[in-house]
Amino acid sequence: MSLNSFGHLFRVTTWGESHGPALGATVDGCPPGVTIDEAQIQHWLDRRKPGQSKYTTQRREPDQVKILSGVFEGQTTGTPVQLMIENTDQRSKDYSEIAEKFRPGHADITYWQKYGIRDYRGGGRSSARETAARVAAGGLARAALNALVPGIEIRGYMTQIGPHGIDRDRFDRDQIDANPFWCPDAQAAGEWAGYLDALRKSGNSVGAVVEVVARGVPAGLGAPVYGKLDTDLAAAMMSINAVKGVEIGEGMAAATLTGEDNADEIFMGNDGQPVYSSNHAGGILGGISTGQDVVVRFAVKPTSSILKPRQTITKSGEAAEIITKGRHDPCVGIRAVPVGEAMMACVLLDHLLLHRGQIGENRGRIG
Amino acid sequence: MSLNSFGHLFRVTTWGESHGPALGATVDGCPPGVTIDEAQIQHWLDRRKPGQSKYTTQRREPDQVKILSGVFEGQTTGTPVQLMIENTDQRSKDYSEIAEKFRPGHADITYWQKYGIRDYRGGGRSSARETAARVAAGGLARAALNALVPGIEIRGYMTQIGPHGIDRDRFDRDQIDANPFWCPDAQAAGEWAGYLDALRKSGNSVGAVVEVVARGVPAGLGAPVYGKLDTDLAAAMMSINAVKGVEIGEGMAAATLTGEDNADEIFMGNDGQPVYSSNHAGGILGGISTGQDVVVRFAVKPTSSILKPRQTITKSGEAAEIITKGRHDPCVGIRAVPVGEAMMACVLLDHLLLHRGQIGENRGRIG
Amino acid sequence: MSLNSFGHLFRVTTWGESHGPALGATVDGCPPGVTIDEAQIQHWLDRRKPGQSKYTTQRREPDQVKILSGVFEGQTTGTPVQLMIENTDQRSKDYSEIAEKFRPGHADITYWQKYGIRDYRGGGRSSARETAARVAAGGLARAALNALVPGIEIRGYMTQIGPHGIDRDRFDRDQIDANPFWCPDAQAAGEWAGYLDALRKSGNSVGAVVEVVARGVPAGLGAPVYGKLDTDLAAAMMSINAVKGVEIGEGMAAATLTGEDNADEIFMGNDGQPVYSSNHAGGILGGISTGQDVVVRFAVKPTSSILKPRQTITKSGEAAEIITKGRHDPCVGIRAVPVGEAMMACVLLDHLLLHRGQIGENRGRIG
Amino acid sequence: MSLNSFGHLFRVTTWGESHGPALGATVDGCPPGVTIDEAQIQHWLDRRKPGQSKYTTQRREPDQVKILSGVFEGQTTGTPVQLMIENTDQRSKDYSEIAEKFRPGHADITYWQKYGIRDYRGGGRSSARETAARVAAGGLARAALNALVPGIEIRGYMTQIGPHGIDRDRFDRDQIDANPFWCPDAQAAGEWAGYLDALRKSGNSVGAVVEVVARGVPAGLGAPVYGKLDTDLAAAMMSINAVKGVEIGEGMAAATLTGEDNADEIFMGNDGQPVYSSNHAGGILGGISTGQDVVVRFAVKPTSSILKPRQTITKSGEAAEIITKGRHDPCVGIRAVPVGEAMMACVLLDHLLLHRGQIGENRGRIG
């Protein structure tokens, strides 16, 4: 069994390999009546597209999405939406080396151990190219979310590359789109440029931390106890290639706090909605959204494909050395930003639909 | 919709409230022919039981499990196993305060906003008491795992309480059961005792980090791309009450590494199985187990119920101050250790069954 | 893997064996705020209870339901509702014969072939006693349905016993509760009494047809194309013990009709809702409810436990003769009536919740 | 929520509309290592293809399948298999009439009532064209089944058209492919030809009964109690367009039998496997396969698109008369034969994988 779907009601199944004819997302459960076209989805895909700066892989794919079903006269019909992206940059490359040798840090060896067969071309199914399909589905999810919850806003950005983090005091939302790192701190972005340049030239790579924040999320989303909003977000982010850690609100640092410090005190806002003194919880209590910003962070490991020689074995068990040539991201975390945003959009829409299914919105009133 | 189940083939549904007549786990999909009785499950429940030291809540529940179905003459039959724990310590307490006021850091306000009704007695469904049902299910999962994969071993322990972490150089497996903190570092355990004593007396609480390691896991478990082993472990751990972050292998620290440093190089072992120079990956590549130790870590936030007065509001929107009296854990992370172990057992058994369903075990051979 | 759950959002998991300590239903996804107590559920269980006439098994079980979770101060809370029925009539009977011999028509041989172990006491998990749990869950579903769709009404009755069918011209709803057969035709009921008496005395049994009709179902329920309302109803009814055929509307007889005859013509009703000239479709078009009566029919095979000697084999493969003594229903179809009603209630509630999740109710207006 | 997937481990999601750019099946959970190519799948699609005789619709679609993912060097890899069929016969037709009027017997009105929008061109998602995707998925399922269970054989045929049934005494397997009706009775086939000719000329249509039989199914498949083999088959067949009834073994006629007559007595065969005196049960006891032939029957209603004028209403609620012109099947049941076979193949493979996941094959031995 493969498990290539996620979501409860808004259900996304991605399919396709890095170097096969196409890849895509089969989206089932999108509400009808959402205005959507290929251009809207393309907008989000273009943000993830490779080759946009020297800091991401130079593979050049137009990543052009086609809507094959589920949309009629510019609106979703409630039937499955098929989003297909054809693979065009399938260079006739020599794959004989990676067909035999397992690249350290890659899924080569485990796919082989699990399935006994693998499409080794460009990593096949385990390639980060799979995330293009997520971004396409996320574009549709955003359109539906915006229609159902006006004012909702999802934004991802980098907070750390290697040992270099941003300074929260210099956080500026407007900077995020102004540099090739989705970095909200202009000064950090400048430093990262030099750091990554040196890494890239040395054939090395580095990890990163991405933060995704959703504003305007209604209170009440999340299905305790195993479909909590944070549970589903953790799964969504951990399923992205190369992610090794996920945090909600304070995250791992919550371990260091006292109960007194960690308490987000509650007050009544002027608009008759609760407000909080702080947001250690990351907008989620008991698995259910509070109405505050939903804050998720995840760590992406360094790109495993590097020019540094590493020891490995072949399929026949022989010792071997490998250098992974080709066009690779020195920091794969950069392109994970739009992917994290897409996953946030899908999870939020899914929980919005679940919540409506149960009880209508915000049934319990305060005051 | 609530989502009170987890697992694909080994499917656990927990039910019950903190102060209702009973709680339990309905376990569907346990393989037939597993030798099990109530005493075996009780063994694991007793490890989680409150009131075992002054560092955990003084609520005294025997937490006695009853098997109501699915077991015949000491063996599972392949039909659902109902594990029930009756609630006996239901003191006739005055709940009028928490019926009206929302406790900061608790799910009181969000359950109200979502459902418009909540069983406020002891936190109802959102109480950590729900985890007793997980531990019971985990006991059954362990029995099945041991029968199917001889030699598999799952062990959890604390690595940090508040700002105080263990010293990995002093790591001693035998210490874990020798102190009330499941701490593998005897010296740290001593320091934690004093630290927690002071916290408890001051009516405060603190967070913690728990690590769970599985040894002897066969290669090949995990279902890419949305049922990856790490994805399901992240969801399983994040669904535990008060957890705010989950890490696999290097976790968040992966962000700081270079690709060269992060590569787990591969060699051929003497037994004809691959061995690795290191385990930055935490035993999982591309979502599939490598055969190395599977390493998961999670952060538990400080207990929200503290004696320090905090600001909040009432159901009618009035400002109020609240002190959460009662019997509480100064560090709820301590009792999360057996819960983390139980979730690991359930996830591994689930993926073992999935893997067998698809292709038999370890189909791809090396060498 | 067992699959002991049904429903998408209103999800019922039944558990328990005929002669174990208890059986029940774990119901997840019930909307919050539904007024319910044990007496309401008991009302429906009492209709299914054995021993109410000489035409049903003389096993005497009070079938007393207990609500263990999910209800607080008389209302559902949105958390799982555990409905437990303890088994009290566990006579210390000699099961050595059926432990060894496979009863023809029963699941004895297939459970053995599948699981290699079976609780043979009274049929274990494959006993029709499992349906008590369905009826309990159905009682909860009815309460929720009534709260959400005032005026909805679900009614089951027998239309055939052996070769003896009812006369539709004598159909009288008021007769259904007036005889031990849930028969809407008083004259047929009289004939059935004599027919069944003779069968019972001869140690034989007979099959039956049950019809279940739901009135007041809103248009728009059903999720094409694999969760169609008729698809889910077919699965629900076929999952009941001994059911061998399921029909919607015209059912198998649809094969004999021409398109001209089968067309349910559409008109505009006085209340601004569509009305139909006929209901060959059974209230469902393209898997979605039309607003007409939803009509389902199913055939129940004759009770397999009879006093007539039949040939079989033992576990060790020896030829043997078997007579199934004990307290059995000469027509198990009679007690299937409340079970069919319960399944209808669960499926309708489930689809109502799905529909609300997607788009609100009856989005497309006519006129 | 739409529910466009079926299957537990072998999971098929169909997508696409009758007159959109393409339709297809996303198949997740196919075991790796199955030898497959487009020609093998095309073989089954060609059997369902319209325009093969004057008794099926004259729409001419090549229905050419493309494999877009999940297959590498002629073998499945265990990743999702995308099977796409482009729609080529999208005549620029005038759909203004059916855009406004609801065709009786079609899903026009209910899709409108549910979704508030519908792709009316050729029935959109509710068109029987969707079944092409099922047949493609079924072709893959057959290949996997044959690899896992050598000798398994699935065969569908017509047993009734309108009032005219076959004579079981003239049943001849070799006749099935020898006439345009998949009729195993040569004499009946001749009669049907004349009957259908007359119907077609008069612009009318008629219903039919299809029977699908699987031989060589291992004992032990089926997951009680809500994923019984018969339950899943009932759902699978009822989900096919226009199906109104499903029977297993004796089906509805089981109502007329006595227990004595209905008992399939058990004997020990020469090969050490149980044999049965008869197969009233249709190869399934307690939801689990016995090893006998699995026998399913379903009724297909007459094609709703006829040239006879029928009364209906428009979207704005006006009374109207409608004649459904165009290329239609006088008996849509004929083309349902390969669809029923495909659903049988998918369900059997799915349960084979489930069974292997749990306990290996045929764990309980007899003798």
UniProtKB/TrEMBL annotation, chains A, B, C, D:
Enzyme class of the recorded protein, top EC level: lyase
EC number of this enzyme: 4.2.3.5
One Pfam family it belongs to: Chorismate_synt
Protein's UniProt name: Chorismate synthase
Lineage of origin: Bacteria, Pseudomonadati, Pseudomonadota, Alphaproteobacteria, Rhodobacterales
Alphabetized Gene3D superfamilies for the sequence: Chorismate synthase AroC
Binding residues for FMN: 125-127, 241-242, 286, 301-305, 327
Quaternary assembly: Homotetramer.
Gene Ontology molecular function terms on file: chorismate synthase activity; FMN binding
Residues annotated to bind NADP(+): 48, 54
Any Gene Ontology CC annotation: cytosol
Signal peptide: none
Role of this protein: This reaction introduces a second double bond into the aromatic ring system.
Source organism of this protein record: Lutimaribacter pacificus
Annotated NCBIfam families: aroC, PRK05382.1
Family: Belongs to the chorismate synthase family.
GO annotation, biological process: amino acid biosynthetic process; aromatic amino acid family biosynthetic process; chorismate biosynthetic process
Cofactor(s) this protein requires: FMNH2
Cofactor, how bound (note): Reduced FMN (FMNH(2)).
InterPro entries for this protein: Chorismate_synth, Chorismate_synth_AroC_sf, Chorismate_synthase_CS
Record's catalysed reaction(s): 5-O-(1-carboxyvinyl)-3-phosphoshikimate = chorismate + phosphate
UniProt keyword annotations, A-Z: Amino-acid biosynthesis, Aromatic amino acid biosynthesis, FAD, Flavoprotein, FMN, Lyase, NADP
Metabolic or biological pathway, per its Swiss-Prot or TrEMBL entry: Metabolic intermediate biosynthesis; chorismate biosynthesis; chorismate from D-erythrose 4-phosphate and phosphoenolpyruvate: step 7/7
